[in-house]
């Protein structure tokens, strides 16, 4: 009796002919999850009666969904991790254009958009801009038709909740057509079977490759065809071109010269704009950073923000000190009024001690009064002048000095009398700690950076239009530091599409307290204004040629830099299960409405007085919820059985329950545990598969035991240079000057570095290579410290999918079955390969696949070795001992086993000629797909990692698809087995795409792997995986011969790291002399090394290098709670099936 499907035991009896010949066996596995399981209640039951259409390219999906949106008559639901309003869906037709078309029809649908509300500092998906553009769609309509609510995270992850998301990707039209899968309506996803690296017609943010630095700068005077986020905010709040028609006069900066000019002209906005023409600097202004007006505007913002910021910081601190003094005074009064006062042996007279304590009390009362007076005076200043701020700051400094003297006196008095109770000592220690933190971490930075910025802003204000080059240059340096070190600075840069790549942990924390409330405040204002918009949508937004300004005004150089091709899978459903997908959207939407129902959203305090509204209509009022009624059941259509799956945190489920109650909908009792449906269904599919499993996924991170490099004392690689200042060339020369030795004592001593001296070095461009590297290390260390401080990190990954695959293959080995697993993964996660979180992801993936103690490959090899020994007569106990033996090189004997018999691991890659030289780039695998035996497909948004699978972090959405008309085929080349024809057609279409059999563009340099066409219908045949592996290995070898920077076996995470570290041993070596670069560095593109063309490549498949990073330890100590989740760690060897018992048990409720 063996666990066959992860839920219940099955017994299969062999059927033989009369002659004793075994017949081919088939079974009916349970692909669909039950209503209740240890991993939570099923979100929906399995429903027959669905018609499906699969999309294996983003281009085909985008065209289909664009037409469906335009034809919608009743409702449109859109949710996604990333939803970009300007994404091109069909040629130059944007998502916004499709929605505009739909809402202008006589039978216009109601439109609901729910993008994830991204945290902006950590990741910005463009949700704010989409929300703004969505509300503008209501302009000119007689009745409001568009609602948008960015989905704030609803995870169970406590302090780390900011880092988790709503990851679902879904569109539902009229409760009749639904789209679900891995493709967001976002930049970069529009790809076809050709996987071109050339830009083609793509530009701006559609020219997408986050793995390399953009080199093409859109010069300031050429930025007018672009909009900034700030301009889009203005367009939404001002009702497009018709500001004066509805009296929404809003100024986003106190002295914005454009608004002043408009107001003083006495003309309507439309007339004024017509006079100025399209060349006018619009709102905050695209290209403002390169104009005199832009510099003046930045100076105004800095001045208006920093002048009160110092005082706000003092306010917070003095209130903190006052609370400590209140507590200390309470203890002093209690001690002096009691008759139980006792003296220490060293005290000569009671009166002396009592007198000293009474003096302390009087001075504490006086300081308290001074603090209260200061706070009252500070609150009376509504708009601080520089003189006001200087006066208040001088008074606050005086209070600080008095507190320091008082603490010294108090510490002298403590040993003299036992009146100084434990509480008194604790309060005194707390006050002293607050004072030290203020002096060391806060005041010093305000005194240096802020005073310099304020002085600069005053000079700019006084200079009028006559700005010197020196003043502009000095401002650039100071503003860069301000952006990197403060939340408001980072916010200003983000608002104007110029975010910084380096930001301190303090700035990230401050930014988060600004950006999310700011977005919610804007939503509240826009939601109210949307009910009465009269003018037409903003003309620049309505023009498809006007694009959002790429971050920093930078984009890829299409002549020399490649886009990153995108591979993904999506599905369209019609029929019974569309009801469940509608229900998912409505439940989530209503949960957000209930959360904010009746609540006011305020402008973040740090922005009050900086971004000023002078229209009373925009003052905060209670939010008026807009609930959506539950959908109607959908009639059957088609023969496929489907079940909708979710990963849903308990917090989300509780808020959905509250939303159902508030909206008047019938609801089940409140959930008792999270939903981990995606994990449950995947475990069942893996365990139930009989012949083969085909997986495409963006990640593969799962339980793997110990990290083998950690055990082998692996060499430090590039990770050390990114996390340890001592690894920087020039460290010895500058360590003492910058007080870097403090970091050696304790990595948390980031605040003790001499940042003022560092700023001088940056300003004078002294040791530029060293300072750039130092800033990167400090940023990394700061981020790590911040994450660790938020919540205790866990030690291991937890999801059991690696174990499930290993157990299924081990069973095949034990039983002598012909069974194979194919897995297609990206080369590495999207992003530059010098990002520490990405490098940690690579570490986790390689440990899970091949390098970890209980990695998938090592478990296969152990099982094969044990099977071999037992077949030769040894007992299982003897075999287990035998496989632990090592050869003369210290390698376990079992590692000689040829695991490829059971597992094929693939990456995708292509190459082209760009800028006169051959260029290669990975084809990014973003799919979340599992196919088993061509009988079942699981398609959705869930990755193979803890974030997606465990249920209490990211929300996810997927569908299980199976059934239909019975068809049999010889998938192993021998026997006829039942398959689900649409599922089989999906896999065949994917293989044809990956083998380049569908490539048709003459610019594609990869040849079709025509010889693999014969394998398409026989995925379980040994000849199939052998042919695929052979071609993948040949392709990998051909690429490696001419591109030294791409991953390969036995190489560093940066394959050219040995040459790089040698070349850069000399501090301040000019970039053109360094010679060896990785693609994430500008030098790779600015100083190219010409290489040969690869020999003929057939197909887009390459062998995944299973020994990449083998001799290197790349764990950055990144808080794994952000990558995983805190749970009890099961002991080694626990089965994937048994692991389910470690998750909360769901109540006995039926799923809807």
UniProtKB/TrEMBL annotation:
GO terms for molecular function: phospholipase D activity. One of its GO terms (biological process) is phospholipid catabolic process. Residues 1133-1152 are annotated as: Disordered. SMART domains: PLDc (SM00155). It catalyses: a 1,2-diacyl-sn-glycero-3-phosphocholine + H2O = a 1,2-diacyl-sn-glycero-3-phosphate + choline + H(+). SUPFAM superfamilies: Phospholipase D/nuclease. Keywords: Hydrolase, Lipid metabolism, Repeat. CDD domains: PLDc_vPLD1_2_like_1 (cd09104), PLDc_vPLD1_2_yPLD_like_2 (cd09141). Residues 162-189, 921-948 form the PLD phosphodiesterase domain. This is PLD phosphodiesterase domain-containing protein. It comes from Aquipseudomonas alcaligenes (Pseudomonas alcaligenes).
């Amino acid at each position: 009796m063996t666990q066959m499907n992860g839920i219940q035991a099955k017994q299969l009896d062999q059927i033989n002919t009369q002659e004793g010949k075994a017949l081919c066996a088939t079974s009916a596995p349970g692909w669909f999850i039950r209503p209740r399981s240890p991993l939570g209640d099923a979100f929906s039951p399995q429903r027959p009666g669905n018609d499906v259409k699969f999309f294996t390219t983003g281009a085909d999906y985008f065209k289909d969904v664009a037409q469906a949106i335009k034809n919608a008559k009743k409702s449109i639901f859109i949710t996604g991790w990333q939803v970009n309003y300007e994404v091109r869906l069909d040629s130059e037709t944007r998502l916004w254009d499709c929605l505009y078309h739909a809402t202008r029809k006589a039978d216009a649908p109601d439109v609901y958009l729910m993008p994830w509300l991204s945290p902006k500092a950590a990741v910005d998906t463009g949700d704010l801009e989409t929300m703004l553009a969505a509300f503008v769609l209501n302009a000119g309509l007689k009745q409001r038709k568009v609602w948008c609510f960015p989905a704030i995270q609803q995870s169970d992850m406590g302090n780390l909740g900011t880092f988790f998301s709503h990851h679902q990707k879904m569109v539902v039209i009229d409760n009749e057509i639904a789209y679900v899968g891995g493709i967001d309506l976002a930049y970069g996803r529009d790809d076809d079977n050709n996987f071109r690296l050339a830009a083609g017609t793509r530009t701006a943010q559609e020219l997408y490759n986050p793995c390399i630095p953009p080199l093409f700068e859109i010069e300031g005077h050429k930025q007018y065809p672009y909009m900034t986020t700030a301009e889009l905010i203005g367009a939404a709040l001002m009702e497009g071109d018709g500001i004066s028609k509805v009296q929404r006069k809003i100024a986003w900066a106190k002295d914005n010269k454009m608004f002043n000019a408009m107001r003083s002209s006495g003309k309507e906005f439309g007339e004024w704009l017509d006079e100025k023409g399209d060349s006018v600097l619009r709102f905050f202004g695209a290209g403002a950073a390169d104009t005199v007006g832009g510099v003046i505007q930045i100076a105004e913002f800095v001045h208006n923000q920093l002048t009160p910021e110092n005082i706000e910081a003092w306010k917070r601190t003095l209130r903190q000190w006052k609370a400590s003094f209140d507590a200390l005074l309470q203890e002093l009064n209690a001690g002096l009024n009691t008759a139980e006062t006792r003296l220490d042996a060293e005290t000569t007279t009671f009166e002396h001690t009592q007198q000293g304590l009474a003096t302390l009390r009087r001075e504490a009362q006086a300081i308290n009064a001074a603090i209260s007076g200061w706070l009252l005076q500070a609150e009376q200043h509504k708009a601080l002048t520089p003189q006001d701020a200087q006066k208040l700051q001088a008074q606050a400094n005086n209070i600080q000095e008095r507190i320091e003297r008082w603490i010294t006196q108090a510490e002298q008095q403590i040993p003299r009398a036992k009146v100084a109770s434990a509480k008194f000592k604790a309060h005194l220690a707390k006050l002293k700690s607050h004072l030290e933190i203020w002096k060391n971490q806060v005041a010093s930075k305000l005194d240096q950076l802020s005073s310099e910025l304020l002085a600069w802003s005053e000079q700019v204000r006084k200079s009028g239009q006559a700005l010197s080059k020196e003043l502009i240059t000095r401002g650039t340096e100071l503003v860069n530091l301000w952006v990197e070190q403060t939340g408001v600075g980072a916010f200003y840069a983000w608002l104007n599409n110029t975010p910084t790549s380096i930001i301190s942990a303090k700035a990230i924390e401050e930014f988060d307290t600004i950006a999310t409330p700011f977005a919610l405040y804007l939503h509240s204002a826009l939601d109210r204004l949307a009910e009465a918009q009269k003018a037409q949508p903003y003309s620049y937004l309505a023009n498809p040629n006007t694009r959002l300004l790429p971050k920093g005004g930078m984009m890829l150089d299409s002549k020399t830099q490649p886009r990153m091709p995108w591979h993904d899978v999506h599905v369209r459903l019609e029929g019974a299960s569309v009801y469940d997908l509608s229900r998912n959207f409505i439940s989530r939407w209503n949960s957000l409405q209930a959360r904010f129902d009746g609540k006011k959203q305020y402008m973040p305090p740090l922005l009050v007085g900086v971004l000023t509204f002078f229209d009373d209509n925009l003052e905060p009022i209670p939010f008026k919820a807009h609930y959506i009624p539950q959908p109607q059941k959908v009639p059957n259509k088609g023969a496929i059985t489907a079940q909708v799956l979710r990963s849903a945190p308990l917090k989300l489920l509780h808020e959905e329950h509250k939303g159902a109650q508030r909206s008047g909908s019938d609801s089940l009792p409140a959930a008792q545990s999270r939903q981990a449906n995606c994990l449950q269904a995947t475990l069942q599919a893996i365990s139930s598969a009989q012949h083969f499993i085909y997986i495409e996924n963006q990640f593969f991170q799962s339980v793997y035991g110990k990290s083998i490099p950690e055990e082998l004392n692996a060499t430090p690689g590039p990770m050390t240079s990114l996390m340890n200042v001592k690894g920087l060339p020039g460290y010895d020369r500058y360590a003492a000057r910058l007080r870097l030795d403090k970091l050696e004592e304790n990595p948390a001593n980031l605040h003790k570095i001499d940042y003022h001296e560092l700023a001088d070095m940056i300003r004078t461009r002294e040791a530029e290579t060293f300072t750039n590297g130092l800033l990167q290390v400090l940023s990394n260390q700061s981020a790590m410290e911040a994450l660790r401080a938020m919540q205790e990190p866990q030690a291991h990954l937890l999801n059991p999918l690696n174990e499930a695959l290993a157990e299924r293959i081990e069973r095949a080995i034990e039983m002598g079955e012909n069974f194979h697993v194919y897995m297609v993964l990206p080369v590495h996660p999207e992003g530059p390969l010098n990002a520490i979180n990405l490098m940690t992801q690579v570490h986790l993936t390689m440990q899970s696949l091949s390098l970890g103690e209980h990695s998938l490959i090592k478990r296969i090899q152990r099982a094969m070795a044990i099977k071999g020994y037992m077949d030769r007569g040894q007992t299982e106990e003897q075999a287990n001992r035998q496989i632990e033996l090592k050869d003369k090189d210290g390698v376990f004997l079992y590692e000689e086993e040829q695991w490829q018999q059971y597992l094929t691991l693939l990456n995708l890659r292509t190459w082209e000629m760009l800028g006169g030289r051959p260029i290669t780039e990975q084809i990014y695998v973003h799919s979340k797909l599992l196919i088993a035996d061509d009988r079942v497909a699981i398609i959705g948004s869930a990755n193979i990692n803890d974030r997606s699978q465990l249920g209490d972090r990211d929300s996810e959405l997927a569908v299980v698809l199976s059934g239909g008309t019975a068809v049999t085929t010889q998938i192993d080349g021998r026997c006829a087995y039942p398959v689900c024809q649409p599922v089989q057609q999906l896999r065949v279409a994917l293989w044809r795409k990956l083998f380049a059999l569908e490539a048709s563009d003459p610019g594609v340099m990869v040849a079709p792997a025509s010889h693999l066409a014969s394998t398409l219908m026989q995925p379980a045949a040994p000849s199939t995986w052998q042919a695929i592996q052979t071609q993948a290995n040949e392709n990998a070898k051909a690429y490696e011969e001419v591109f030294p920077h791409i991953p390969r076996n036995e190489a560093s995470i940066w394959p050219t790291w040995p040459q790089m570290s040698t070349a850069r041993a000399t501090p301040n070596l000019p970039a053109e002399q360094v010679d060896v670069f990785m693609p994430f560095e500008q030098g790779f593109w600015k100083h190219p090394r010409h290489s040969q063309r690869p020999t003929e490549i057939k197909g887009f498949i390459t062998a995944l290098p299973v020994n990449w990073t083998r001799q290197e330890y790349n764990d950055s100590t990144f808080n794994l709670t952000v990558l995983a989740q805190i749970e009890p760690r099961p002991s080694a060897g626990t089965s994937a099936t048994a692991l389910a018992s470690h998750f909360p048990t769901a109540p006995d409720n039926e799923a809807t």
